[in-house]
Amino acid sequence: MGFIEKAKETIMNTYKRNNVVLVEGKGSYVFDEQGNKYLDFTSGIAVCSLGHCPDEVISAVERQMKKLIHTSNLYYTIPQIELAEKLVKLSGGGVKVFFCNSGAEANEGAIKLARKYHRHKGSNKYEIITFFNSFHGRTYGALSATAQEKFHKGFEPMLSGFQYAELNNIESVKRLINENTAGIMLELIQGEGGINECAKSFINGIMEICSKEEILLIIDEVQTGVGRTGRFFSFEHYGIRPHIWSIAKGIAGGLPMGAIIAVDNVASALEPGTHATTFGGGPVICSAALAVVNTISDEKFLASVIEKGYYLENKIKELQKKYPLGNIKGKGLLRGVELTLKEPSRVVDAGLKNGLLLNVTAGNILRLLPPLNVKYEEIDEFIDRLTKTMAEV
Ligand SMILES: *Cc1c(COP(=O)(O)O)cnc(C)c1O
After folding, report:
1. Which atom of ligand 1 is nearest to the CA of 221?
2. Separation of 260 CA from ligand 1 center, angstroms?
3. Cα separation, 15 vs 272, whole angstroms
4. Is residue 317 part of a domain?
5. Predicted confidence pLDDT, tens digits, the chain (393 residues)
6. How far apart are the C-alpha atoms of 96 and 235, rounded to whole Å?
7. CATH code where residue 151 lies
8. Residues in a beta bridge with 22
9. For a substitution probing ligand 1, which of 42, 100, 135, 188 has the most ligand atoms within 8 Å of its CB?
């Protein structure tokens, strides 16, 4: 029996997987069982931010594995402290970090923290406003925050206390504000929802509401954070700083990590015993993340993400003239292109045959997530292969 048949017999059928077994990767490429080579423009969904098997992550993990693997959070460990120090600095100071293991878990913590902050201040505010087409994760709190019916179906009832508004429609937010509103939570560029960007004026409006009504602004940076948009955090594009934000995906170069970051006076609402995780912030994962963050936070590196984003954008614009492609959206290397043809998922299948790993989200948005250190020649190669793919479909 082949691996795929074995998988069908043994693994829960929760993913629409591509018919390929990947065994190796280096940089922007992965290889399957038969030795076929693929250019990866998904990066494990924005996770492999420095490409596959990056040297700095391997050596950091190797070093730490031999020293200390796990202690629990009953003790201090140096990699966790060093990583926190770096993230606090990159946040502009005056914040604290909590480490966990995934994006959903970080958002769960962010929601708990928002409620706890208000309780700590002697108020009972508990409602969180989120937005249609958002994605915050699959656990109950994060799923309830995710305003997309298709993800809720069959799992109801959702956690109470979530209200849904429309992105870039400030009136739809104002209508939902009441004495129980504790927080407003959103992605500045909706990733799973189709690379939908928040307008600057909309975010300014949200900021105004938050300060007037004593509401916390929570930004989900799980997909947009850690350099993906060309700034370390995507909120830097907007000249703002939220009260709470979550990160995950790209932070540890392929290993699982999430984190909540919150400004000091909010973070202090979580006292000893109020929130915890066994694995979160372990020394091995923090060593990996520190290597990733040190590379990505470099100003020149971040500037190169913006430049490569424009380079890719201009190349896609040339293809728009010939093939059924809409406008390219997004920032840096978090990009989306509308596929204006029937059965858009055919592009993914045809891409695979042409040695390309592609992802389509929100039904018809080709989501481009190359490694942040992708080379210009690789972008050219991507365009060649995408051209061939589009010509075939
Ligand atoms: C992927 C994602 C999540 C969920 O992260 P997991 O690690 O899969 O739990 C949450 N928010 C956003 C914006 C995401 O893209």
Report:
1. 13
2. 13
3. 38
4. no
5. 899 999 999 999 999 999 999 999 999 999 999 999 999 999 999 999 999 999 999 999 999 999 999 999 999 999 999 999 999 999 999 999 999 999 999 999 999 999 999 999 999 999 999 999 999 999 999 999 999 999 999 999 999 999 999 999 999 999 999 999 999 999 999 999 999 999 999 999 999 999 999 999 999 999 999 999 999 999 999 999 999 999 999 999 999 999 999 999 999 999 999 999 999 999 999 999 999 999 999 999 999 999 999 999 999 999 999 999 999 999 999 999 999 999 999 999 999 999 999 999 999 999 999 999 999 999 999 999 999 999 999
6. 17
7. 3.40.640.10
8. 32
9. 135
The answer to the question of residue 44 being in a domain is no
Ligand 1, atom nearest to 103 Cα: 5
Beta strands 365-368 and 334-339: pairing type?
antiparallel
Range of the domain at 213: 56-296
Which residue has the least CA distance to atom 15 on ligand 1? Answer: 223
Cβ atoms of residues 355 and 340 within 8 Å: no
- 2 in any annotated domain: no
193 and 133 Cβ atoms separated by less than 8 Å: yes
Q: Would 320 be classed as within a structural domain?
A: no
Mutate which of 148, 223, 246, 359 for ligand 1? The one with the most ligand atoms within 8 Å of its CB, which is: 223
Number of H helices, E strands in the chain: 14, 17
Give residue ranges with CB within 6 A of ligand 1. 102-104, 107, 135-137, 187, 191-192, 220, 222-223, 248-249
Atom 10 of ligand 1: nearest residue by CA position: 136
Structure-token pair, residue 49: 């931010």
Of 130, 139, 249, the one to substitute when testing ligand 1's pocket (max ligand atoms within 8 A of C-beta) is: 249
Q: Specify whether the CB–CB gap between 260 and 248 falls below 8 A.
A: no
Ligand 1 atom nearest to 190, measured from its CA: 13
Written as one letter, the residue type at 183 is G
For the chain, how many structural domains are there in total? 1
Kindly report the protein residue whose alpha carbon is nearest to atom 11 of ligand 1: 136
